[in-house]
Specification:
InterPro entries: Bact_exopeptidase_dim_dom, Pept_M20A, Peptidase_M20, Peptidase_M20_dimer. This is Carboxypeptidase PM20D1. GO terms for molecular function: carboxypeptidase activity; metal ion binding. The chain is built from 15 helices and 19 strands. It is α/β, with parallel strands linked by helices and 511 residues long. The chain folds into two domains: 276 residues, Aminopeptidase, CATH 3.40.630.10; 155 residues, Alpha-Beta Plaits (2-Layer Sandwich). The N and C termini lie far apart (67 Å).
Length: 511
């Protein structure tokens, strides 16, 4: 018996030594040499004024296209044409479905597959604003820059469509999502054309006008147009990743450049739960609301199983070198610690979304009076589908949660599968990686799963290499200003974005 226990002890010692050695030998990328803020980038007042003017046009999209206000959309199109005559003169430009904007800048070598840069110019509603400066234009581009916000965005400091340039920032709805990227692309082409530069391969720009409500009339129509014309792309670049400031992810004390190589799918459904209606003085043993509550509790308590997909394994391997030894040990030895790692990741809202199909209960409707029992109660649930799961998997999961009850499940919108995963061994990825290293030298660069929806998804029919990245360095609080109050972008972020895209366009075929 003594020999048995000694054998077990020896085995445990060998196992522990193996785990430690494997962790020490694991090829985590070396942390960047510096985590410091990159240099300040110069920008002309003209570039800032053009951008600020675009923010002042309230291009709010609407899910009901019959209620869509196309006046600001048309005004924005006219504004671009007036502000960038050189770009319009130097490209073949046209519209798709009236308001989708396409620019084709021809290169020297027509045999090379083109690349395309995407953006959109519609925005979400700004929410409530109680200030009195709605007609005021503030342009103070040389003010000292205020530090990034360090708290959850409160009320708007400036009118949401002011395009105010003050304190080293440009304020307004769309400054981060996504007019900044659109204007940075236009500025980049304009600046390069002014120098006489001609790209080696064709470059396209494509701007949708309804991304915030699904992109079915904008990006989808544009991508379909390219497919029908037989045009495919060496790389597609859109929003979806950022450079997350140091400390944004617990334990990682360097900026992280998140390149979205895939995005989650999407399905919303309304569940109509049937029961006995009537007067509240004689309620049934279980009301329709009670039945709905049981189903909703099942959905929250018994969610779809977490998975560490290969893309996220690569993500954690890339950032693991910055993390504590315990976390590195779990990443380096998934054969033993995968379950523990997944359990840990599920404990945080952000990381949980990276390892499972998420379930969000978003809406509910019962009776219209406090003393009336509704015979039908409905609730809406939204699933963001992890690559590896399918819409059909999620439907079966929802049906299982509804077992034992009389329900009707109705689609809300069109379900969408998770996107294909674009590889990191393509030229389009390597060029982006090289350019990020140039402009964000202190950042850890890693592929990533984009958890929100983007227009990029529509372009998977015309390219195998679709990447989601906006070259801005922002902290968690600045990220929260997207679709929220007090949205802004720093002047330095905007000016660096212009430099970044110029380098991407100029050096794409540089060896």
């Amino acid at each position: 018996m003594k020999k048995f226990f000694l054998g077990i002890l020896l085995l445990l010692i060998v196992l522990a030594a193996f785990i430690v050695v494997r962790t020490m030998m694991y090829p985590f990328p070396k942390p960047p040499a510096t985590g410091e803020e990159p240099e300040t980038y110069a920008i002309s007042d003209t570039s800032l004024m053009r951008f600020a003017g675009g923010i002042r046009i309230p291009t709010v999209s609407h899910a009901d296209y019959d209620q869509f206000n196309y006046g600001p959309i048309e005004a924005f199109d006219t504004y671009l044409r007036n502000q960038y005559p050189r770009v319009y003169a130097g490209t073949e430009n046209y519209t798709v479905n009236q308001y989708g904007l396409v620019f084709h800048w021809k290169g020297r070598n027509a045999a090379l597959k083109p690349v395309i840069f995407l953006s959109h110019y519609d925005v979400v509603p700004p929410g409530e604003y109680t200030g009195t400066d709605s007609g005021q234009v503030t342009f103070s581009p040389h003010d000292p820059a205020a530090p990034p916000i360090s708290a959850y965005p409160g009320a708007w400091e400036r009118y949401p469509f002011s395009g105010a340039v003050v304190n080293g920032r440009i304020y307004g709805r769309g400054t981060l999502d996504m007019k900044s990227m659109l204007f940075a692309l236009m500025e980049s082409v304009d600046h390069l054309m002014a120098t006489g530069f001609v790209p080696e391969r064709d470059i396209y720009l494509a701007f949708g006008f309804d991304e915030e409500v699904g992109g079915t009339h904008g990006a989808l129509k544009i991508a379909t147009h390219f497919k029908e014309k037989g045009i495919s792309f060496d790389a597609v670049y859109d929003e979806g990743g950022i450079v997350s400031a140091a400390g944004s992810l617990p334990g990682v004390h360097a900026p992280i450049a998140l390149i979205g190589c895939a995005e989650k799918g999407f399905w919303s459904a309304t569940v109509r739960v049937k029961g006995l209606g009537g007067h509240s003085s004689m309620p049934p043993l279980q009301s329709a609301i009670g039945k709905a509550a049981v189903i909703m509790q099942r959905l929250e308590n018994d969610q779809m199983k977490p998975m560490l997909i290969p893309l996220m394994q690569q993500f954690f391997a890339n950032i693991g070198g910055m993390m504590d030894f315990k976390t590195r040990m779990a990443i380096a030895n998934p054969w033993l610690f995968k379950g523990l790692l997944l359990k840990t990741l599920q404990g945080n809202n952000t990381t949980n979304a990276l390892v499972r199909t998420t379930t969000a209960l978003t809406m509910m409707k019962g009776s219209d009076a406090s003393n009336v029992l509704s015979p039908v109660v409905e609730f809406t649930v939204n699933f963001r589908i992890l690559p590896g799961n399918t819409v059909e998997d999620v439907k079966l999961h929802l049906e299982h949660a509804c077992r034992g009850f009389d329900v009707e499940i109705v689609n809300v919108g069109v379900p969408r599968e998770a996107s294909p995963v674009s590889g990191t061994d393509a030229q389009g990825y390597r060029v982006m990686e090289r350019t990020i290293r140039q402009y964000f030298p202190g950042a850890v660069i890693t592929p990533y799963l984009t958890i929100g929806g983007t227009d990029a998804y529509k372009y998977t029919t015309v390219s195998e290499h679709v990447y989601r990245f906006m070259p801005v360095l922002i902290n968690n609080f600045e990220q929260q200003s997207i679709h929220n109050n007090n949205e802004y972008i720093s002047i330095n972020n905007f000016s660096r974005m212009i430099q970044y895209f110029q380098s991407m366009m100029k050096d794409y075929d540089k060896q």
